[in-house]
Design a protein that fits this description.
Elements lengths: L15 H17 L5 H8 L4 H6 L13 E9 L2 H5 L3 H16 L7 E8 L3 E9 L19 H21 L4 E9 L10 H13 L3 E8 L5 H7 L7 E4 L4 H19 L15
Parallel strand pairs: 1-2, 1-4, 4-5, 5-6
Antiparallel strand pairs: 2-3
Helix pairs in contact: 1-2, 1-6, 2-7, 5-9, 6-7
């Protein structure tokens, strides 16, 4: 397993240069397979860094026993507004509840999960690991401060997912991907553009191998408009208006239930909507 360090600048034992070369080959393979377009390939490869290298690591295909794998990528806002709302403990508890739910599901052996947090910097808490190895957030591993690099988190996490998923497919392991971002604010400070998010989302949805979902917390932002601009289908967007501990715990319950449904094939990937349907 490869982890970044606390500021998203580490990637295990691989050198950054070697990692970029390996990722570029995987993106070329994904392009040739029709997962991403040449234009989107250019967007991704034009901004490869250590955090994408770290995020694209994961369990070796030879160690995966399931015949079909669901990759769950969870992106959690760790900006100062979470702290100001008094929601840090609720985020930790909610993420722990989500891990409990996945570990108790019948599909646990066919799911691999990556966990990211984002604020001024992007952090890969861990790349794709089995449910039993997922980190449970605590006061040490999750502290909210800084701004909300929403677009950077989205683009880099999707790029990492494309690379790891392609590595599994090239090794003969079929997989589908579920990517969920949870935030209480709109973008502040990203280098990526919302158009970059939309281009990448559009390609991945068209491949019908990816489910993309967005959770907004609070009423300060028109989250449906933000998600739509990023390319997330309206039916895969939910807003928890109550920015309270109980409201946030409800969010994580919904995400865990929906991820399990997706792994069961009850949520169609691609442009089809209904990720958060009961």
């Amino acid at each position: 397993m490869s982890k970044s360090n606390g500021n998203g600048n580490g990637n295990g034992n691989s050198s950054s240069g070697a990692g970029v070369v390996g990722l570029s080959a995987l993106f070329a393979s994904a392009r040739d397979a029709g997962t991403i377009s040449p234009a989107t390939t250019g967007i991704i490869t034009g901004s490869l860094g250590a955090v994408v290298i770290a995020g694209a690591a994961g369990k070796d295909a030879d160690d995966i026993v399931a015949s079909d794998v669901t990759l769950v990528t969870l992106l959690i806002d760790a900006s100062s507004s979470i702290h100001q709302r008094g929601l840090e403990d609720a985020v930790r508890e909610g993420q722990n509840m989500l891990v409990d739910a996945l570990s108790q599901s019948r599909e646990r052996d066919s799911m691999l999960m990556a966990l990211w947090t984002f604020n001024d910097e992007l952090r890969v808490v861990h790349s794709y690991v089995g449910v039993d190895d997922v980190t449970r957030l605590d006061a040490r591993s999750y502290q909210a401060a800084g701004c909300t690099r929403l677009y950077d988190a989205w683009c880099d996490a999707l790029a990492a997912n494309v690379a790891y998923a392609q590595r599994l497919r090239d090794a003969g392991t079929p997989c589908k991907s579920v990517v969920v971002i949870v935030t209480d604010g709109e973008d502040v400070g990203s280098r990526r553009l919302v158009s970059d998010c939309a281009s990448l989302s559009r390609d991945l949805l068209a491949s019908e191998q990816f489910t993309l979902a967005f959770v907004g917390v609070g009423t300060d932002v028109d989250f449906h408009a933000v998600a739509r601009a990023m390319g997330v289908p309206d039916g895969n967007v939910t807003v928890q208006a109550q920015a309270t501990p109980s409201g946030l715990r409800k969010v994580f319950r919904m995400v865990s239930q929906s991820a399990i449904r997706a792994s069961q094939g009850l949520v169609r990937p691609g442009r089809a909507t209904g990720f958060f349907a009961p």
